[in-house]
Amino acid sequence: MSEPHTIRRLTLPLSRDEARSLTLGETVMLDGEVTMTAGFPTHQRIAKALDEGGELPLPMANGAFFHMGSSCRQEGGRWVTNYVNPTTSTRFDDYMPGIVRRLGLTATGGKGGMGRACVEALRDVGCVYFSMPGGASPLLSIGAVERLQTGWDDLIEQFRLSRFRLDGFGPVTVAIDAHGNSMYEVLQDGAAARMPQILEELEQARRESAARLAAAKRG
C-alpha cells in the first residue's frame, strides 16, 4: 500500500528559499499573515505609490499578496471573517510585474493564473503563485481567521488593503512556481498541440454525417 500523501504546511511570509522549493502542482496549507485586495483601483494606488516613492498603508515588502475580496464583523474587539473570496488575477496583469519586483514578494495568489510578464517577474524575484478555486470561498474562509489591519479605508471593504492572519488556509495549489513554470501555460500548450487533431476529427465526423444524410435521401 502506498504512503498517504502529506500536504506541506507553510507559514507566510515565505522565505525566498521556501518559495523556490515549491514544485508545480504541489498542494499546501498556509498559516501566517497575508495582505489581500480584490480592487483594481487598489492596484493602481500601489503602483502609483511605488512610482512616486510614497508609502503604502500596510507593510508589503517581501511578503504575501493575494487577490481576494473579504468581509468581516467586529466581535470582542477583533475583526472576525465573514468570508474571503478569490478574484481573477489576470485583471491585474498590467500592474503585477512591477509590484512583484519592487516589493520583492515571495507569494501571490488568486484564481485564473497570470500572464507571461507576471510569470517572468515571479521567476526573476523568486515568488510563487497559489491557485485558489473560485467556488471554494466557504472552505478558504475558515482558514482566514482574523483581519488584523486595513488601509485605504475610503474604498469599499473588498477593495481595501487588508492584512489577515491565516490558520490552516487552503488547500491551495502551486500553479506558477518561482522558476517560471506555469500550469496554465502547460495546459494551453497541450490544448494548442491537440487542436489540429480535434479539428480533423470534427471534419471527419462532418463528412461521415453528410454522407449518411445523402445516402438516406437516395434511399
Question: Could you explain the architecture of this structure?
Answer:
The chain has 219 residues and is an alpha/beta fold. Helix content is 37%, strand content 32%. The chain contains 6 helices and 8 strands; from the N terminus they run E-H-E-H-E-E-H-E-H-E-H-E-E-H. It has helices spanning 16-21, 40-52, 96-103, 116-125, 137-143, 183-218, and strands spanning 8-12, 27-37, 64-75, 78-86, 107-110, 128-131, 144-151, 161-176. Strands 1, 2, 3, 4, 5, 6, 7 and 8 form an 8-stranded mixed beta sheet that branches. Strand 1, helix 1 (16-21) and strand 2 form a beta-alpha-beta unit.
Write the layout of secondary structure elements.
Elements: E1 8-12, H1 16-21, E2 27-37, H2 40-52, E3 64-75, E4 78-86, H3 96-103, E5 107-110, H4 116-125, E6 128-131, H5 137-143, E7 144-151, E8 161-176, H6 183-218
Parallel strand pairs: 1-2, 2-3, 3-5, 5-6
Antiparallel strand pairs: 2-8, 3-4, 4-7, 6-8, 7-8
